[in-house]
Amino acid sequence: MGEKMLENGQKISLEYTVFLEDGTQIDTNKGSSPLVFVLGAHQVFPALEEALLGLNIGDAKEVALTPEQAYGPVMKEAFREVSLETIPSQFRQPGAVLAIQDPAGGVYPIRVHQIKGEKAVLDFNHPLAGRGLRFEVKVIAAD
Fold first, then answer.
1. Cα 71–chain centre separation
2. CATH number for position 108
3. Residues of the chain with pLDDT under 50
4. Residue 4 lies in a domain
5. Cα–Cα distance between 17 and 27 in angstroms, integer?
6. I need a surface site. Which of 44, 49, 54, 75 has the fewest CB within 10 A?
7. Widest CA span of the chain, in angstroms?
């Protein structure tokens, strides 16, 4: 029986490594549990899902995502000015990252962009906004 091509609705197990445009590795699950998700359910980047359609189990592929296909462009409106005293003193410098709990219970990183007198400019953009990402993926299993 021939290999079945991947299609939407299948549960996929994926091995991946993620790189920035400059080749810096930022994430991998090699040597640990595979990433398991339903293809087409938008649990991962849609552009990554599209690249997996039609692959077979055991196939490896390199997928480059533009910033728009990944975490989106850097948005000016995601910068916000707050009173400096609302920020814990150890975080009152540019580049410091505050971890804020979001309503869903996840932790969201907010970067201190600039200190201007009694104000701090916070950057609510995702840390990888504006970056292209390159995925090296391998399909481990599908059902």
1. 6
2. 2.40.10.330
3. 1
4. no
5. 6
6. 54
7. 70
